[in-house]
Every structure is written in structure tokens, then in C-alpha cells.
Design brief:
The complex is a heterotrimer. By secondary structure, chain A is an all-alpha fold. Chain A contains three helices and no strands. Chain A has one domain: Orthogonal Bundle (Helix Hairpins). The longest helix of chain A has about 30 residues. By secondary structure, chain B is mainly α. Chain B has one domain. Helices cover about 70% and strands about 0% of the residues of chain B. The longest helix of chain C has 26 residues. Helices cover about 75% and strands about 0% of the residues of chain C. Chain C folds into two domains: about 80 residues, NADH-ubiquinone/plastoquinone oxidoreductase chain 6, subunit NuoJ (Four Helix Bundle (Hemerythrin (Met), subunit A), Up-down Bundle), CATH 1.20.120.1200; about 40 residues, no CATH class. By secondary structure, chain C is mostly helical. Chain C is globular and about 55 Å long. Chain C has seven helices and no strands. The chains are: A mainly alpha, B mainly alpha, C mainly alpha. At the A-C interface, α1, α2 and α3 of A face α1, α2, α3, α4 and α5 of C.
Chain lengths: ~100, ~350, ~170
């Protein structure tokens, strides 16, 4: 019953998600929204890993564990990024990337 | 003896005979949804009534006693009043998020109820990751609180939301770690398996000292996670008027109120299921006569008995202890509960490996 | 179209609509909320694929962890009347042009590639299985990445605390 939907629909879905993340990464100038776009891209990759695992190699768990580790790394990345954002806000009073351009303040 | 799965099986067979497979799924979803919604509402009303009576008992008052016998209809009257109240909208509030926030809180608390085993076979869905599912869904509720605080464009709400966010994120760790102890004992996250594993004694007796420590930590941490007194700094009336739901009125306020009580019910029910055997009667291995007698009491009575006892204890917390300050609250979690919990987890791993439990 | 497929189409529609909205809305907290919807729908997709554990991890870590962190930092750095700066049309066109081109190339490749979905029987993914794989050092074991990730998380924890810690104010040094 799982295979009534072709793998291609999943891949197109995750492609659209990934590239809306890319577009957001280019458009946005606010650090937090850039972080959100990065999360979208990571999430799209995660979907791909799980779908490949389920459709192409259902007798193994490699993709499952890969996406598990990606989630863990995304959590670490987000926590460090937000610590940085808060520190930047404290020093520059803004988190727009085009205003945070001084190495020395 | 009392097996709900026979009843559900009979209903399922009846539906399969008369409808095709898609309609069966839809009809069953609607039935389960209606059942759980009704139960949710009734439990909410009961808990509000109970809170008032317990509060009155501690403060030497009578509590509600005018509407209906013993004031039983008081909460129903309050509900009708809340339904008819005007829904105020704050100027310059973010309308979409302002309206969305109470629903996130209610849906998060509603979704967890489905995974609880109320009796044998009386469980909406028996996931093989049941306990983890409940932990993950309860972590969504805080988002509703944060959104409510930010979108209502009020300083009190923002402060309340920030406090509540810091509090819930911290105490979630202790809740999950203390539940981890039982997962280590049973080797499964499926709630029905956890309940079945307590047929010859509840974990709080079988696992003795380490499990008792995690039970106490769970009770404290889950009280804090549900924003209840003495940990209710998020809505401290004397400082923040009502914290994150200051700007809400009518039925949206009632949603926050209801969700708080249902979260309390959830943590009590989870503690009852995981540590005190859920619907499993009180059994002592070796005493067959006692076990037989205990089996005569229906499991649903056992479940609600244990849950409401724990709810009573949590309510006593609220009306006994003074409110903690923010720094005291975070100190309690990060300097005491979390280290104790981590050490306790290692001890339990050792106990499980050595087989030093009953 | 049966129940199963309807569910997939619903989830896919939610993901598509809201992932575009995440990058186009002009209110920052709404973007965070739409991101929450995307992540929850993704968790639903994992559940649909019968990876229940991954779905719960997704809800607990992404929706309950990362989005809460993002919302928290929004609360600390923005007021409600803030709007994101409007973007120039050329930049918008550039971004969507690049993204659309990339998406087009990928989708054409996906549609034309012949995936070999001759499925073996599906493996039951229960928690015990996952745990055994994670601490297994032999074939199909993931003990090393598991340990590396735990070290990484510890490093991130300490790093985040060190970065975000308030520095000693100058008045104390005098």
C-alpha cells in the first residue's frame, strides 16, 4: 500500500522545499530568517534520505540513521547560531547581515 | 477479565461488514475523535471543579456550593459564561498568530491524550514509541505560549512568555530523563508493553530506590512543565497580571485554562502509567488470593484512581508552597534536579545490567 | 484515490505552500510559525513512511527544539511592529530565478531517471532495533558516528554557553 505513490513525487516535493530554502537564503537579510532557510534545506535533505531508504533499500537502515545524525547536527548548529545571533544583537543592536560588517567595533 | 479490545473489535467487524475500507477508516476516526473530545471536555470540567474544592478545603472554605448539588454545575455555568463573552482583539496585535496560539496549546494537549492507555484495549493508538511520542508532543505546547505572549503586543504577556519558555525548555530535560529510567527497565517505549511489564508489581516497588528518586523528580519537573504553582511564574498574578494570556478573553482564554488542566491530567496519568502500573491492579507476586481480589476492580477504576490521587498531590503543591523566583526556579533545575537525574540514570543502568531489581 | 493517498497529498500541499510562505512573508514570527507547519507536516510524512521514531525525533527536536529556540531569539531581538525590510525587485527576481532554474534541472533529472524500486521486504523499525544499531561496532553498526555526534553536541553546548554568556562589565574590573 506504501508504493502506490511513486518515489518521484517525494523527490519533487523535497526539491521544491530545498529550492525555496535557497531562494530564502538569497532574499533575506535578517540572520534569523537566513537560519530558517538553512533549516528548510536540511529538512529537504532529510526527507530524501528517508525516502531513498524506504523505497530503494527497505531492508536496511542506513538512510534512517543518516537523517537521525543530521537532525542532531541541525540541533547543535541551531543552538550555536542562535548564541551567535544574540551576541551580535547585543553588540551591534541589529541582526541585519548588511549592517554587521565590521570586524572591530 | 475487563477487556475493551473485544468491544472495539466488535465495532470494527460491524463496520467492515457494512462499509468499504475507506469509509470504515473515516467512521472510526470520527468515532474515536468524538469519544476523546467528550472525554477531554468532561475531564477538564471535573478538574476545574476539583481544583476549586481542594483549594477551598485547604483554605477552610466551602468552595462552590450554589449551582447544582454541591456546586457540581458551577463549572458548566462558567463554561457557558465564557462561551458568551466577547472576544476582545488587541489593537496592533498580530491577528493570525493571536488567534492561532490558543489552538496550538489545546491541540498539543489533546494529541497526547490519545496515546494514553486508559484500560486494556482502551487506547486510541498504541504506537511503538508511545512514551517518546508523548514527550515530543508536549514540547509543542510551549510554542503556543510563546506565540501568544509575543503577538498580543503587551509587556506583561511578553515577559510571561519569556519566563515560561525558559522554564518549560529547562524542565523538559528532567521529565524526559526521569521517564528514561523506566524505558531502561522495560526496554520498550510502547505504553501497553510498559503497563504489561508491571503485572507482577509496579515499577516504583520493583525498581525500589532509583525509581522512587526518578518518580519524585518526574512529579516536580512535570508540575513545573505544566506552569502550575509553585512554579507558575509565567502567569504570576501579582507581578504580571496573568502573564502570557493577559490579553485573551472569552473562549480563547478558556482554551489556555483548559489546556493547563489537561496537561496536569496528562502528567499525572503518565506518572500513574509509567511508575504506578497504569490500569494494572495492585499485585504482589506470591499472594494469589490478594491478586484475585484486586483483579475484580475494573482497570479503568484503577487508572483514574491513581491519576486523581496524583492530581490531588499536585494540587496540594500549588496551595501549599509559595511561588519560586525565576532564578530559584532555574537553579532548582540546573543545579539540583538535572545532576541528580543524570547520576540516577547511571545508577539505574548499573542496576538493570546487574539485575538488582525484582 | 484512497485514504492513504489523500493523506499524502494533504501533507505535500501543506509542505509546498508553507515552505514558500516561510521565505516570502514579511513578518518574522509568522515565518517561524510557517516553518513550524512545514516541519510538522514533514513529521507526518515520516510517519506515513512508517518511520515512527524519526517522526517523533522530528517533532521533538525540530518543532519542539529548534523552532522554540528560533521563536525565543525572535522574542529577544524583535518587537511586534518590526517588519522585515522590503527586497528590491531585481534581487527577488534573481533569487527566484536561480532557485527556479535549480529546481527545474533537478525535477527534470528526477522525472527522467529510472529508479529501481524493486523492494525487498520492509524492515521493522522498532526502538530496540535502532538502539542495537546505534551501539553496534560491527557491520551495519553506527557506534562511531553516534559517539562523534555526542561529542559534537557537548562541544556545541559548551560553545553556545561561552558565546552567549554576558561578558564581565567594565565596572567590575575597576
Amino acid at each position: 500500500m506504501l508504493y502506490t505513490i511513486s518515489i518521484k513525487y517525494f523527490l519533487i516535493l523535497s526539491t521544491l522545499m530545498f529550492f525555496s530554502g535557497v531562494a530564502g537564503f538569497i532574499i533575506r537579510k535578517n540572520l534569523i530568517t537566513i537560519l530558517m532557510s538553512v533549516e528548510l534545506m536540511l529538512n529537504a535533505v532529510n526527507i530524501n534520505f528517508l525516502v531513498f531508504n524506504r523505497y530503494l533499500y527497505p531492508d536496511q537502515l542506513q538512510g534512517h540513521f543518516f537523517s537521525l545524525f543530521i537532525v542532531a547536527i541541525a540541533a547543535a548548529e541551531a543552538s550555536v547560531a542562535i548564541a551567535l545571533i544574540i551576541n551580535i544583537y547585543r553588540r551591534f543592536n541589529t541582526i541585519m547581515v548588511n549592517k554587521v560588517d565590521e570586524m572591530k567595533y | 477479565m475487563y477487556d475493551f479490545s473485544q468491544l472495539t473489535q466488535a465495532i470494527h467487524l460491524f463496520l467492515v461488514q457494512h462499509l468499504n475500507s475507506s469509509s470504515v477508516a473515516i467512521v472510526e476516526l470520527v468515532l474515536v475523535g468524538l469519544l476523546f473530545l467528550t472525554m477531554y471536555a468532561i475531564l477538564g470540567l471535573t478538574l476545574v471543579y476539583m481544583e476549586r474544592k481542594v483549594c477551598a478545603f485547604i483554605q477552610n472554605r466551602l468552595g462552590p456550593n450554589r449551582v447544582g448539588p454541591l456546586g457540581l454545575l458551577q463549572t458548566v455555568a462558567d463554561l457557558i459564561k465564557l462561551l458568551f463573552k466577547e472576544l476582545l482583539m488587541v489593537k496592533k496585535a498580530d491577528k493570525f498568530l493571536f488567534n492561532l496560539a490558543p489552538f496550538i496549546v489545546v491541540i498539543a494537549s489533546m494529541m497526547t491524550i490519545g496515546a494514553l492507555p486508559f484500560a486494556k484495549g482502551f487506547q486510541a493508538i498504541d504506537l511503538n514509541i508511545g512514551l517518546f511520542y508523548i514527550i515530543s508532543i508536549t514540547s509543542l505546547g510551549v510554542l503556543g505560549i510563546l506565540l501568544a505572549g509575543w503577538s498580543s503586543n503587551s509587556k506583561y504577556s511578553l515577559l510571561g512568555a519569556l519566563r515560561s519558555g525558559a522554564q518549560i525548555i529547562s524542565y523538559e530535560l528532567s521529565v524526559s530523563l526521569s521517564l528514561l529510567s523506566i524505558i531502561m527497565f522495560t526496554g520498550s517505549m510502547q505504553l501497553s508493553v510498559i503497563v504489561e511489564s508491571q503485572a507482577n508489581g509496579w515499577w516504583i516497588f520493583k525498581g525500589h530506590i532509583p525509581v522512587f528518586i526518578s518518580f519524585l523528580i518526574f512529579l516536580i519537573a512535570s508540575t513545573a512543565e505544566t506552569n502550575r504553582g509553585p512554579f507558575d511564574i509565567a502567569e504570576a498574578e501579582s507581578e504580571l497580571t496573568a502573564g502570557f494570556h493577559t490579553e485573551y478573553s472569552g473562549i480563547k482564554f478558556a482554551f489556555f485554562f483548559l489546556a493547563e488542566y489537561m496537561n496536569m491530567f496528562l502528567s499525572a496519568a503518565l506518572a500513574a502509567t509509567v511508575f504506578l502500573g497504569g490500569w494494572m491492579p495492585f499485585h504482589v507476586s506470591g499472594f494469589e488470593g490478594l491478586n484475585q481480589v484486586m483483579d475484580f476492580i475494573p482497570p479503568i477504576v484503577w487508572f483514574f484512581g491513581k491519576t486523581f490521587t496524583l492530581i490531588y498531590v499536585i494540587m496540594l503543591f500549588k496551595w501549599t508552597f509559595p511561588r519560586l523566583r525565576v532564578d530559584q526556579l532555574l537553579t532548582l533545575e540546573w543545579k539540583y534536579l538535572l545532576p541528580i537525574n543524570l547520576v540516577n540514570t547511571i545508577v539505574i543502568a548499573f542496576v538493570v545490567v546487574m539485575g538488582w531489581y525484582f | 484515490m484512497n485514504f492513504h493517498e489523500t493523506f499524502f497529498i494533504l501533507l505535500a500541499a501543506i509542505i509546498m505552500i508553507f515552505s514558500v510562505l516561510v521565505v516570502t512573508t514579511d513578518k518574522i514570527l509568522r515565518a517561524a510559525t510557517y516553518l513550524l507547519f512545514v516541519l510538522l507536516a514533514t513529521a507526518g510524512l515520516y510517519y506515513w513512511l512508517q518511520y515512527e521514531f524519526m517522526a517523533a525525533v522530528q517533532v521533538a527536536l525540530y518543532a519542539g527544539g529548534i523552532v522554540v529556540l528560533i521563536v525565543f531569539s525572535v522574542l529577544l531581538t524583535h518587537q511586534i511592529h518590526h517588519k522585515l525590510v522590503s527586497i528590491t525587485l531585481t534581487r527577488k527576481l534573481l533569487a527566484f530565478g536561480i532557485a527556479g532554474l535549480g529546481a527545474l534541472v533537478s525535477i527534470v533529472t528526477i522525472v527522467n531517471y529510472d529508479f529501481n524500486t524493486a523492494p525487498a521486504e520492509a524492515m521493522k523499525v522498532d526502538v530496540r532495533q535502532i538502539g542495537l544499531h546505534l551501539v553496534n561496532t560491527g557491520h551495519n553498526g553506527f557506534a562511531l558516528p553516534f559517539e562523534v555526534v555526542s561529542i559534537l553536541l557537548l562541544a556545541a553546548l559548551i560553545g553556545a554557553i561561552t558565546i552567549a554568556k554576558k561578558e564581565e562589565s567594565n565596572s567590575d574590573n575597576i
